[in-house]
Design brief:
The protein is built from 23 helices and 31 strands. A hairpin with a 2-residue loop joins strand 10 and strand 11. Helix 18 crosses helix 22. The longest helix is centred in the N-terminal third of the chain and has 19 residues.
């Protein structure tokens, strides 16, 4: 034992005591952080505290719940453990758990995806359980292929570690295919019949330039996938869930593995709980935990950490859950949408470092599923409540901004007193990472104040979480907004009397990384609110478009591989696009789509040809990790209000002589096109290119209307009909979100 290690242990012990007994705070991270600063090899020394070995759970969604379930199963089997149950999953949190807890047989840890490369080679864990990979915290984590590379590198550095992975996720399957470690595949061997959401995170094959197809898809990119251009397909399952039943009482399935088939059940009644169930079962059976011990842990599992936590407050059923990315949020919405009774729904979105500063992902959540539900009141909270209120507005949902969950309950009480909602209306609170603890603490305090009723809570609240319904073709709540679900009265008559404004959304299956589709949704809805007919043509990979019949073109950004494939298709359309642009056709291009407009742009570290529609080029002075990432405020000639957005790009764009910028960065944060000139984006004729996403138009309605005015002029010229005026709209929600960020960034 080195002197450095002894000092690190002592510092960890002192800081743990001080935090718990003096500051009255959890000691989940800081003791480990201090100890690691003293001895960076701390985990190598602490590994021996787990006599028989350790397991690490990693993945985007479900780490804490699955890890805690594993911990319960190990203990049910009579095995002693060290575990970071609170969800402190960086190296500091794992180190704190090892410092503070006594020597045990097993370590059961959850670990952040990017920190696995630091933790696994030191712990040399027996198993890594890989749950899923979804887009999450793009400003911190970057694109998913960076996470894949990091996890694969961690496993290669610990070759004796067994990878137990979700084979239904093509992103996880690619890792398993690349690493030398022994792998164990699990998944669900039948469809759960779920309604599909708009955006998924892996539409492109993981081995070639083909597109992934499905025999059936569960949610996100999970399912039984294959590529018809190469041999990439879902691997054979070592542990397969079958005969899946989801009811308000939970999920039941038969899991078939090397030792045969066994029936298991979890009281968590959600589709993602089905995946957590088969994942935990596979890991437990691999380490020799019996099905009986596993089921005993499942039956007793009662999360009190805000994940699917139930309460009975004031005669109301309350459900609290975490959601921190589009896939997680969409699965929570399935729970809420399935409850057709009266209810209050409170969403909380923060943008602290642990959440990711970039919240463009809220535009990839299908909030439209809640639109039109009767006796439903929705509130928006958190540090980005105004942005959330705007997103809900464009989903057809009026949401008041609230200070906290107590404010929501106060307003709910007023609505009940006024007869707008019954006294037993259910309550759903859904929060992202740092927004969850204050909501959790407040609900716990409310529960403590009603302690005499606590024994009834579990039974009374059992009906609040129900399985997601299967798609119903005749249900208007299942109709996408583009099919007119949120159209204003009179639109049908207008559509008969004048031709629609045609918006071409270019390659949304490849270019939709930063909630880019939200820009199209905003343009579409702002026309509908004015009674102007609109048609959105979503041009998928491999499809053609006649630009002479289009009034506005939109191009988003995508991950490198998808962006390269999109650029090749766009280059084949280059001449037609040039005619459109030179004919004053309006075009909005965001991030990668913006780069492609120039003479050249960067694919990874390679310079590739662009469309050459604007005299500009994109270069890179450093590496792909040297990114310009921040909020920013612009002055732009297209708006009287400041233009607010978010940037996240490694390329540096330089405009040619005489090319105007979209705006100039006036905030102290943010960079714009490059490190030097404070210029942001580009304008040429009626083309706007910009790195500003969020999406751009959500807080900048003047820019949206400038584009729509140009589109109406083109429609008039194209069809010979009079140019329509843009009637004023109530943009108070959009401008409140704009003002909130301007104030914060100034």
């Amino acid at each position: 034992m080195s002197l450095r290690f002894s000092l690190a242990k002592a510092a960890g012990a002192v800081s743990t005591w001080g935090l718990r007994h003096v500051a009255r705070r959890p000691a989940a991270n800081l003791p480990g952080k201090i100890a690691l600063a003293i001895d960076p090899s701390l985990l190598d020394e602490l590994r021996g505290k787990c006599a028989q070995g350790s397991v690490i759970t990693v993945g985007t969604n479900g780490k804490t719940s699955t890890n805690n379930l594993l911990a319960d199963a190990f203990e049910a089997a009579g095995r002693t453990i060290i575990c970071n149950r609170t969800g402190a999953n960086l190296a500091a949190g794992i180190s704190s758990a090892l410092l503070q807890q006594p020597t045990a047989q097993w370590g059961v840890f959850e670990c952040d995806e990017l920190w696995l490369a630091h933790v696994l080679p030191r712990l040399r864990s027996n198993y890594v359980l890989l749950l899923n990979l979804f887009r999450d915290q793009l400003d911190r984590c970057g694109e998913i292929d960076r996470i894949q590379t990091s996890i694969a590198g961690a496993l290669a550095a610990s070759p004796d570690t067994v990878l137990v992975y979700n084979a239904d996720d093509p992103l996880c399957a690619r890792i398993a295919d690349e690493v030398p470690n022994r792998t164990v595949a699990y998944g669900l061997d039948e469809s759960m019949g779920l309604a599909q959401n708009t955006v998924t995170d892996a539409q492109m094959c993981q081995k070639c330039d083909g597109m992934v197809r499905y025999h059936y898809r569960q949610y996100g990119q999970l399912g039984d996938y294959f590529c018809d251009q190469c041999d990439f397909a879902r691997p054979t399952l070592d542990f397969a869930g079958r005969d899946i039943t989801i009811t308000p009482a939970g999920v039941t399935m038969e899991i078939c593995g090397p030792a045969g088939c066994e029936s298991v059940h979890t009281p968590q009644p959600t589709p993602y709980a089905a995946y957590n169930l088969v994942a935990a079962y596979a890991l437990c059976r691999e380490v020799g935990i019996s099905a009986a011990d596993f089921q005993r842990a499942q039956d007793a599992f009662n999360p009190r950490n805000g994940r699917l936590q139930r309460y009975r407050l004031g005669g109301r059923d309350v459900l609290l859950n975490l959601a921190k990315n589009p896939t997680g949020f969409n699965q929570n919405l399935k729970i809420v949408e399935a409850d057709r009774g009266p209810k209050m729904v409170a969403f909380f979105i923060n943008d602290q470092v642990a959440d990711g500063r970039d919240i463009s992902w809220i535009w990839d959540i299908d909030f439209e599923e809640l639109a039109g539900q009767s006796n439903t009141v929705v509130f928006a909270g958190g540090s980005r409540a105004h942005d959330l209120a705007v997103r809900l507005k464009y989903a057809g949902i009026e949401a008041a901004v609230i200070e906290n969950i107590e404010d929501a309950f106060d307003r709910l009480g007023a609505l009940t007193a006024a007869g707008a909602l019954p006294s037993d209306a259910a309550v759903y609170a859904i929060a992202n990472y740092t927004a969850l603890p204050p909501v959790h603490a407040a609900l716990n305090a409310m529960e403590a104040a009603e302690a005499p009723e606590a024994p009834e809570a579990a039974e009374a609240a059992a009906c609040i979480a129900v399985a997601a319904p299967t798609p119903r073709p005749d249900d208007p709540a299942q109709a996408p907004a583009s099919e007119g679900k949120n159209a204003e009265p009179g639109n049908a008559a207008a559509a008969l009397s004048e031709p629609p404004v045609v918006i071409a959304h270019m390659l949304p299956d490849l270019l939709n990384l930063y909630g880019d589709g939200g820009n199209v949704r905003i343009l579409e809805q702002r026309l509908r609110w004015r009674g102007i007919p609109v048609e959105v043509r979503r041009i998928q990979h491999g499809e053609a478009v006649d630009f002479s019949q289009v009034d506005l073109v939109f191009m988003g950004g995508g991950p490198d591989r998808e962006q390269k494939l999109a650029s090749e298709q766009l280059l084949a359309m280059r001449d037609e696009l040039a005619v459109y642009v030179e004919g004053d056709g309006p075009l909005l291009a965001i991030c990668g789509g913006y780069q492609i407009l120039g003479r050249q742009w960067l694919w990874g570290d390679e310079l590739v040809p662009g469309l050459g529609l604007i005299d500009m080029e994109t270069r890179r002075p450093g590496t792909s990790a040297d990114r310009l990432i921040d909020n920013m405020v612009l002055e732009s000639p297209l708006a009287t209000h400041p233009v607010v957005g978010y940037e996240n790009h490694a390329g540096r764009t330089y405009l040619g002589e005489g090319v105007e910028g979209f705006g100039r960065v006036v905030s102290s944060c943010g960079h714009g096109n490059n490190d030097d000139d404070r210029m942001e984006g580009a304008r040429y004729k009626n083309v706007v290119g910009t790195y500003s996403h969020g999406p751009l138009l959500s807080k900048n309605p003047e820019v949206a209307d400038w584009l729509l005015a140009r589109a109406l002029e083109r429609r008039a010229e194209r069809t010979g009909t009079p140019a329509a005026d843009l009637a004023p709209l109530d943009d108070s929600a959009e401008l409140a979100a704009n003002a909130s960020m301007v104030k914060r960034l100034s």
